[in-house]
Amino acid sequence: WSRAGGAVLARLAGASAERGARDAIRLVEDVGVGGRVEDEDDPLWDQQRAKQRSEEGLSVRISGRTTDVARVVECARRLGADVTGRAALGLLWLTLPPAGPEDLVAGVEDVRAQVAPRACVVLDAPAEVRRRVDVWGLAEGPEANLMRRVKGRFDPHETLNPGIFVAGI
Length: 169
Prior knowledge:
Blueprint: H1 17-30, H2 42-50, E1 58-63, H3 69-79, E2 82-86, E3 91-96, H4 101-115, E4 119-124, H5 127-132, H6 142-154
């Protein structure tokens, strides 16, 4: 979804994929949404993956439920952001357009407030923004303590990402 509109991609495979695709298109057309079958859909999926990241703006990955899609899209609409995702998996990527650090930090805080208690991890952001937000968004508490115990168990010598993992672990 972007300010220009959106699309839903669905990939079907197997012996009945063609029939399933036709049935799916008939269902969406019944509610007033257009659809088409793409025999070679790799470019569409490549575009979808590319929209999960941002080289100039800011991107966050939201881990939630399929029922969170509408809430995330509404949040993106208010912020002038784009959303791409794997709705069936509950994974959504919200990408804020390039802006100053103040606006991007406020955007991260707004997104986290709107999708709470869902996990919202900053993937891409300018260095100034990364210094000012907790990219993991995990506050002190039982979750951070659990992460410390897991990290201590599997990385007792703190070899992997020392000091930059969740909650400063």
